[in-house]
Structure formats: C-alpha cells, structure tokens
Write the structure tokens for this entry.
Amino acid sequence: MTNPLARGDKMPETPVGPFDVAAVAAYAAASGDDNPLHLDPALAARAGFAAPPVHGMRLMAEIAPALAAWRPDMALKRLTGTFVEPLLIGEAATLSGRVLRVDDEILVRVTVQGPRRGPSLLAEAILVPKEGA
C-alpha cells in the first residue's frame, strides 16, 4: 500500500526535454498544431526568440506520466495549466510538483521550469484514489 499524501509532499523532479526540431515537427504533425512559429527559426527570430518554442501542450503532455510514475495509486481527474515563458527547441526543463491540498481530492501544483527565470508552465492537477487502490 502506498503512503497517503499530505500537504507539502513533493513529487520527484523529472527531466523534460530537450526537444529537437524533429520532435517538435513530429508533435506538430500528430497534434495538427502546425503554427509556423514552432517550426520556422526565421519566424521565431522575428518574434524575438533565439529558437522556435516547443508547443505548450507538448509540455503539458509530460505531466500525466510523471504523476502516474510518482503515484500509481492515484488517477488524474483534472489538469489545468498556464503557459508562462516558452521553452525553446534545444532547451531542457525540470518538472516538479507539491501537494497543496488534501481532502476528497488531492491538489498538486506542478511546475515545468526551463533555463530562464520564469517557469515555462504552471499547472494544477487534481488527483483522486484509483478504484480498488
């Protein structure tokens, strides 16, 4: 049996990326999000980026597996996020989280922190015990 979660508990840090051009292009094709900002270095440069930004939803896709690896006894009920500062192609980030509230549901604040000062993504995950767990 897995230990119950408590306010302040931290999930282990998980590396995210770096994503290369091929990975971003594959995500664009699979998701249907072919915004040229993510695929065209010249356009990204004109927008003020040193490289094209990785799709924010690609970063969101890292959260559910990290939560499941940390707490296989819990199910993800809801996930919301705010994209703060882009993570650029070639950059690595770190995903971390902390339990903010424990009641019938568990609220976990998740951060994907890139190399710059601001986080790339701030998210909140609601976890509930899996049936039979």
Q: What stands out?
A: Helices lie at 21-31, 41-46, 56-60, 63-70. The chain has a mean pLDDT of 95.
